[in-house]
Amino acid sequence: MKKGNQPPAGSGPKEGPQAGWGAKGQPRDPQDAPHPATKTGAALLHDEASGIAYDIRLTLTKEHRTVTLRRQPVGGLGLSIKGGAEHRVPVVISKIFKGHAADQTGMLFVGDAVLQVNGVSVENATHEEAVHLLRNAGDEVTVTVQYLREAPSFLKLPRGSPGPPSDHGSGTSSPLFDSGLHLSGDPSHTAPSSPSSLTANEPKYEKRWLDAWSVPLSMARISRSDAFEVLALDGVRSGLLRFCSARESSDWLRAVSANVRQLTLRDMKMANQCCSPCDQVVHMGWVSERLEAAGHCPPVLPKFLAVKGPSLYVFRVPPVSTWDWVRAETTYDLCEVLFKVDKFQIAGDCWPQADLGLGVRDLGAEDMGPYCFSVTVGHGRSRSFAVELGGELAEWEAAFQRATFAEVQRTGSKTYVCSWRGEALCFTVDFALGFSCVDSKTKNVLWRFKFSQLKGSSDDGRARVKLLFQDLETKQIEMKELEFEDVTAVLHCVHSFLAAKVASVDPAFMGSQSSARKYTCSS
After folding, report:
1. What are the pLDDT digits (tens) for 9-24?
2. CA-CA distance, 369 to 519, in Å (whole number)?
3. Residues facing residue 117 across a β-bridge
4. Contact call for residues 237 and 215 (beta carbons, < 8 A)
5. What are the PDZ domain coordinates in residue numbering (predicted)?
6. Which of the four CATH numbers 2.30.42.10, 1.10.10.10, 3.40.50.11540, 3.50.50.60 does domain 65-152 have?
7. Which tops the pLDDT comparison, 65 or 4?
8. CATH of 411-521, one of 3.30.565.10, 2.30.29.30, 2.30.40.10, 2.40.40.20
9. Are 393 and 385 within 8 A, CB to CB?
């Protein structure tokens, strides 16, 4: 987006979580490069309403940014600051001088609040304390900053405006006016501070976040079609973003997804503080659900899934408070859910996809999706979901296995009402004992078998199931027939208990059963 242009409608600044993604109306900068905590680059923003494409610069940030500056012989750190605790305002960067140290990092901006200098907190420091610390921080200075979405009013004072008086004789400066000499010049210089301390007649530039908006990434959703878009929980949208190559687009998609995932882990940790040990959130995140409909390409809707305690939750919007968990669209008993990676639907035709660059699809991008999985629930109903990255698919598969096995061991047993030839019975799957069938009236145990004795099963898809057990002594196969109201749920429960039993004696079993494990390393 060129400087002075307005962002697309609906993309204006809004309050949100502190970690996010910013789009700034700045020219392309060839020195932009990935940073361990951030990522900066150029993209094209397509405004669907007007059809106009904007040149923009993107910055992906975490909650706080830590940037190392090398003090230059001419220009010093190349920035000025305002503010201080004595005026109940933060110490903020008020100027960035083009071509000097702060500008060269590409990661510092006018309006950034300075939190730490070389690991020393300045959040409660006075203006002069911050000045002194920066002045004597050495040739290599590490600053931790946070961008303030609402610019402090004192940053907007025009140059030359009247302000609080300062004692020039003492060499101090007003907290509401720039203190730049100690940052822009020789650190041993003690003359009164002034932006004119830079080389005489040198043009002065300010690097500002103009025409900017921020998209908070906490529980944000990424939508991908012929480009990709980030949609924040509070309704802010990044707009459709395209990059100069498919590889660059996939790199950005992975980077944004990684930051969203880190924030989701933080949200899970906070949610689990309010949950009992047996009701912890194991995994949660956005997926796309393919709805059942006639036609070659049925509609796809975003859903938010969560594996928590004994249940799989399906939401239309993410749960942000304890009370939101009771507002789920649907919940399923994990022990009665069958998770399956849909190998033949990976990157299938029925999921929205297209090139991620400018007309070129990178077939070598191994981690790019969509990657599909299904969950089969009671009465044989199946729901199909997709995620954008192979690593996400591997995380969902591992989360389902881990949560299901934990729930099996926690509950210990499941009992289902059933019948055979008009007799009311109770069928029990027990993690320690195996299978048993009890007469509902007399409570007599009709038969009991260990897990190892189950040799096969079959069902009619409606209500009746046949279980084949081998007698330990005679080695003969015994067939037991039962009828259930929901035979699918019972069979899934049997599968969950069997898998958990094997995993309890063979730790490598979970890994050997993973269909999506190969994507973990590429995530």
Report:
1. 333 333 333 334 444 3
2. 11
3. 120, 143
4. yes
5. 66-149
6. 2.30.42.10
7. 65
8. 2.30.29.30
9. no
